[in-house]
Amino acid sequence: KRFGKSEDISPAFVFLASADSDYITGQVLCVDGGYGMI
């Protein structure tokens, strides 16, 4: 187990800023490395 790094979450930000995410509205994108499943 480790703390997340900027390299871990930056792909999510890039995706959300891209045209690929144009159909996503009102969602919470949890980028926690699976920690929330514990």
UniProtKB/TrEMBL annotation:
Gene3D superfamilies: NAD(P)-binding Rossmann-like Domain (3.40.50.720). SUPFAM superfamilies: NAD(P)-binding Rossmann-fold domains (SSF51735). InterPro entries: NAD(P)-bd_dom_sf, SDR_fam. This is SDR family oxidoreductase. It comes from Desulfomonile tiedjei.
